[in-house]
Give the backbone structure.
Amino acid sequence: MIEIPVERRARYLRNCRILAIASSLTALLYLKWLLFDARPENPLLFYLLVTAEVFNVIQAAGFWYTISIQKWTEPLPADFASSQETIDVFITVCGEPAEIVEPTIRGALAMRHPRKKVWVLDDGRSPEIEWLARRLGAGYLVRANRRGAKAGNINAALARTTGHFVLILDADHVPKPQFLERTLGLFADRRVAFVQTPQVYANRSSNRVAAGSHEQQALFYGPILRGKSAAGAVFSCGTNVVFRRSALAAVGGMPEDSITEDLRVSLILARAGYRSEYVPLVLAEGMGPVDVAGYFSQQARWARGGLEIMLRRRPFFFGMGLPAGVQYGLSFAYWFTGWAYLSYLVLPVAYLLFGQRPVQVPNQYPAYFLPYIVTTMLTMAYAADFRLTYRAVWFTLASFPVHIGALRSAILGRARRFVVTSKAGAIRSLRPARVHVLVLAVLGLAAVLGFARMGLTPAVMNNVAFVVGHTSIVYGFVRYSLKPEEESAGVMETAEERAPVRAAIVDEEGV
């Protein structure tokens, strides 16, 4: 997570606003040239470029707005001696091995609160997990079926517990002792339904996929969620979140009609008049996906769930307020990023293979595009406190097959299933990156044929430069598919060796 020291926050926020204004001006100049001055050559490619660029400018403008309104919510430690609230800690488990679950149970039991009860919600019905929970002193709950996946598991536990508040932890997210002290104080406002805290990955130093996933979401759990907090649009992220039980009861518990129940319940609670808060302090550490297949599975679940809510659940409502509506709209629109990136892949290939380009005067393009892209990247880097990594960028862009597949599935309404992201061991396989291998082949062929057909002209060199950039982005997942772990992390497993311990897959009906 990207944090800013207290003494630098005022200057940081001021500079974010200055950079946001500068980026907005260069973006407007670029769009003015593209929409009104550029002369289309191939109409189809021109409108493809325009659509992608307008989408990205809107997304960028949303980011500039978000970082300009950031707020920091860091309540003082709560005084439990003078209060009477009780809290249930739910650790959701579904097939994770005991060595992952045990640190989470121990961390939950070590949290400072005199009236807490820790429960292991085991949808895997594992005798080993039951023995572990009882040995450590935690409660152990199972249910007759697994209907509703994680949401159903939580609802079943809510019916059997009584705490005023509920902390939800995934099986691999180990809380720190001060977790409850730094969050429960915000519930003094009776309108607050839940308090979300960041997710960070403890295995980022030993696994390159986990590291990339951690770096990708660092911007989200830093300036983006701080901005959403100011706009009243914080949404639950599924773990490391404390709910007010009475608020959940008022809306019928966790919704079981979505594979992203965390986002869905956030919107339902907002519609019911509740508020949410975000505490930008690292109060728990979890395990990130350990291979490309696991990462894509995680991203596909989030994308599919978000797009289904946007297309089928009427997430916006009268009374939401414009700032919150804008923030939720930006969150949903993020899952179209892959389509924009696919457009950028098509454009240089179209020119190098077929001599077709979107505009007739490509030499003017850099004069307008470069100031826009430079100020945009500078603003993003500064908002990230210059900790934005190239890996974080390509983890986002090279996930385009996931975004495309998620939209197709959301539109077609295919049967949903909840896939538990495996954290137990990395699988070395090119299968998750087969689309990337195909893209690399097409990019390479386009560059070779472009040189052969048209020579070293400025237009060819410009498009080959884009091909080189795309290659450096797409190649990353091919490399990580073959070697997801760091050099010193030990021996990897093949797909065949890993198969017996893969995490369970539970569909909507618990099959």
Remarks:
- The chain has 17 helices and 13 strands.
